[in-house]
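Let us practice reading a record.
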Amino acid sequence: MAYLKPDKPEKFYVPALRAAKEKGEKLVCLTAYDYPTARIVDEAGVDMILVGDSMGNVIHGYGNTIPVTLDEILSATKAVKRGSSRALIISDMPYGSFHTGDDDAVRNALVLMKDGGAEAVKLEGGRNRVGLVKRLVDEEIPVMAHVGLTPQSVHKMGGYRVQGKTADAAKILIEDAKMLEEAGAFSIVLELVPREVAEIVTNELTISTVGIGAGSACDVQVLVLHDLIGFTFGRQPRFVRQYANVSKVITEAITNWMNDVRSGNYPNEKESYGLPSDVKLNERKSASSRR
C-alpha cells in the first residue's frame, strides 16, 4: 500500500522503548502543549513528547492538574502533532476522563488518538487501574502507566510528597508496577519515588520505567519543559535541574523593546515602509483632494 505521507525513517514508535531498554540505552521525554514548542523539542531529538495535564500548572495557571479538561488536552495534542514528525506523542488522560467506566475511558482515549493524533495515552493509578489498562490495550490503545506520586490524587494524598518511603509502601508500589506491566502497559512513570525503589522496579520489569524525581536508574527521564528552561514561577521541585532562564530572557526582551519605543528608537527606517521613489506625497494629497 502506498502512503501519501510516510513517516520519517527515524520516527520513534512504542516498540523502540523495549529495544532501547534491552540495549541499555537511555531515552528522554519532555512535555509540550503547542506547535512551536513541539517543533523545537522534536527537532532537538527528544524521543517522546508528553502532552501532559501539567499544562494546568504551567499554561493555564490552575494550581494543580485537576481542572484540566479533555478538550484542553485534545487541542494541545493537535498542535503538538502538527509540530512533531519524529517523537512519539503521548497524551495524558485528564482527571475525570477515565473515572466513569471503561467504555467512557476507551471513548475518550480514542478521541485523543483519532482526532488529536496521539500515538499513546498516559493514565494515573496502580492496581485500581489494571482492568482499565488491559481494556485499553485490548482496544489497540498503547498505555503508559503512572504510579508513585499521582498529581490527580493530590487531595487524597494530602499534597505532593515522595511515595514508597516505607517498606510496606515500597512493596505495594513494586507490586502495582508489575501488575500494570502484566495488564499490557508499554511503560510506567515513577514519580517522586525513592531511587532505590525505582531501581528495583526498573530491574524487575521488562517494560521501560519513566522517571521524574525517581533517580538515575530509570530507563527514561521526563521533565516538564517549562521547569527545564526556567519558564515557571516560584520554587522548583528538588529533582529539577534548570538549564536556562527563559523568563529572564523574555523579561529583558520586553523591557528593551518598551525602552526603545518610549525613546523613539523603535521602529527605525529599516523597520518601516516608505513610499515608492516615484510617488510624491504632494501628488497623493492633490489626488485625495480631488475625490
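A brief commentary: The CA atoms of residues 98 and 105 lie 4 Å apart.
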